[in-house]
Amino acid sequence: MQSITTVVNAGRLLDGRGGVLDDATMVIRDGVIVGVGPRGTVDEPRDARVIAADGFTVMPGIIDCHTHLGGASSADYSTWVIEDDLRQAVLSTTQMRDLMDWGVTTIRDISRNGIRLKWAVNNGHLDGPRIIACGPGLSRTGGHGDAHNLSIDMVQRSHPWGMIADGPEELRKAVRTLSRMGADAIKVWATGGGMWDKELETDQHYDLEELTAIVREADHLKIPVLVHAESMPAAKDSIRAGIATLEHGEELDDECRSMMLEKGIIHVPTLQLFIGPWFDQYPPPPRVGLEDWPGETMAQKEKNRVIANFTASREAGITIAVGSDSFSSIEVPYGASTIEEIHAMVRVGMPALEAITAATWNGARALRIDGVTGTLQEGFASDFLIIDGDPLADITHLTRDRMVHIQRGTQVWHDELSPKPAYARRNDTGRTAGSVQ
User: Is 62 in a helix, a strand, or coil?
Assistant: First the structure.
């Protein structure tokens, strides 16, 4: 195949690790960055394709550390299991496409479909983000990954992102089964999630012995463990067990944060889930002391508590990464929720540059692919966005309508800056079809 070289001349380049470079040049060859630096200091091959991005911001592609490409078309957990599995598999490709359209170039996915989609993308059958696939997550019987009103056999066979296992030995076998399926990481629900009255967010579902068995088995296989933990006792046991990332983690204390710093555990807070407007209709779990927080309603008190918890983790120096927890296009739309997570972090006090780092470099670290992507530096994959605007001045400039170029490696998903062939047309999403690929 003929080598393809592209030169990107940027008005401003954000490298993903906190670096900001004005009037920058980035040179890409066959999907890999081979040079980046101030304009005039980087050799530009004469035969290169040039993208003139003067006046625009270039930044790494976004990394979403928590998605569910289950193909569910409803927010109802019973329907997730009852829906036809093949129909869900087809719909999951659309969910993946939605993430791509919002500039998400890498994901960590918890679903049965994610393993299959990873194979299809890696083998060139589908364009798509880089996928770190978990397969279904581990849930206790009656837990957050169990549709309790359906038969266990049906749940085990057809839940799009849940697998039931109880006790250390079953969990060890489940980890081995997931590895056999092709999982790159293991997802665990250490607490409930509030879908019914016996799996509240404050209910711990796996104890320290069980969590330790999971982590030890995963360590044998050299794959990390991510844990959904929405209560402090579950968070502490998960941290003690040696997990890699803590998902949600909206109830932490100084001891939790100290242990996380000591062990290098990354926090994926999914902040927009808990402070977004739809939460006003969602009763918070009965947390001790919640009534003492400011706010006119219990939902507002919970939002303020979650914001304070997030701020305390950030100020303590814990590494924070972005995750949307998109599981349904209705409740948590794919891609849009990823961007909203970044915006939410900034709204509650995180500097914009820090939030962009959380969405890029920190995500790569959380997924253990920080030797491949997450930054615009020589030797890394050319996963990048070109933004019509300045997200450092206004984080809302980081949105789909301002993404004039979206690229992952050699895959160009959207390009408004290069000359279009005569047959280029606008498709029904308003995006340009027929772009240079």
Answer: strand
Residue 193 has pLDDT above 70, yes or no: yes
**C-alpha to C-alpha distances, 319 to 71, 133, 227, nearest whole angstrom:** 31, 22, 16
Q: How many CB atoms lie within 10 A of CB 429?
A: 11
Fold entry, domain 62-366: TIM Barrel (3.20.20)
- Record the pTM: 0.95
Position 433 scores a pLDDT of 34
Quote the pLDDT of residue 73: 82
List the single range of 124-128, 194-198, 281-285, 420-424 with lowest mean pLDDT: 420-424
CATH 2.30.40.10 is held by the domain 5-61+375-433? yes
Residue spans per domain, the chain: 5-61+375-433, 62-366
pLDDT at 421: 56
Q: For 65, which DSSP code?
A: E
Cα 177 → chain centroid: 24
Which spans in 138-270 are helix H? 152-158, 167-181, 208-220, 232-241, 254-263
